[in-house]
Structure formats: C-alpha cells, structure tokens
Amino acid sequence: MQSAPAARNHDDLGKLILRVVLTLLLLFHGLSKIGGGVGFIEGMLQKAGLPAIFAYGVYVGEVLAPLLLLVGLFTRAAAAVVAVNMVVALLLVHTGEFFSLSDTGGWALELQGMYLGSAIALVFLGAGRFSLGGLEGRWN
C-alpha cells in the first residue's frame, strides 16, 4: 500500500502527462491554422449563420489554451476553453460522423472525443503540483 504523499506524487505526475499530451497534440492543429489561416473555418461559421470573426477563437482554443495547460497556469479555465473549442469543432465539422465507424472499426470521432474527454478531465483534476500555478492556484 502506498503512502499518501507517494500516491499524491503519482497523481500529480499523471496530471502532468495528461496536460503535456493534450497540449502537444492540439498545438499541431493550432500551428497549422497559424500557417494556413482560418479561412475555411470562417466559411463554415458563415454557413452556420455565425459571424466569421469567431474563427479567430480557434487560436485561443488550439494555441493559447494548450500553452497555458502545458505550463499549468489557469489550467481549469484553459481546459474549459479547449473543451468548448472541441464541442464547436464537433458541431461545425463532424456532425455527420457522430454515429460512424472508421475503416479500422473505431469510432470516427475517437481523436476528437479523446481531446474533449481529456480537457473535461483537466477541468475537474486541475494542474497538480508540477505546474507554475501550483496546487493552491485558484484556477489550477
């Protein structure tokens, strides 16, 4: 049986791993949009009757929020932003795939589902000890 401090260290390490993995995977999407722009997102938003300016929110959800997750500042708020970003992406881009399987038999939206689930987990878990915000940070 592990002592409480040893178990806490493992919990904090798990939170760090979750933050790092989610950040690294999301940043590829954000950097792609920095390089290629958000024109296609603007088009989808306009088609849905929403202002095209909202497309720039993707930089917050796929660049800024993941960087905050990585360093562990405002972790719960940043994770909530990522979760909202993923819900918007699912509704705008992937609605036709909700009940689909991929060619390999998995859920067609398993990657998006993992991003969303990881972000929601971090909203509840917080950053942990291995973060700039520390354990006592209000939003960590």
Nearest-angstrom radius of gyration? 17 Å
The total of beta strands comes to 0
Helix fraction, binned, reads 55-70%
Order of helices and strands: HHHHH
Major sheet = none
Strand content range: under 5%
List low-confidence stretches: none
Instruction: Figure out the total of helices.
Output: 5
- By secondary-structure content and strand pairing, the structural class works out as mainly alpha
Estimate the mean pLDDT confidence. 88
The best one-word shape is: globular
| N/C terminus separation | 28 Å
Nutshell version of this structure?
With 140 residues, the chain is mainly α.
Describe it.
There is one protein chain. The chain is mainly alpha-helical. It contains 5 helices and no strands. The chain has helices at residues 4-36, 39-47, 57-71, 75-93, 110-125. The longest helix has 33 residues, at 4-36.
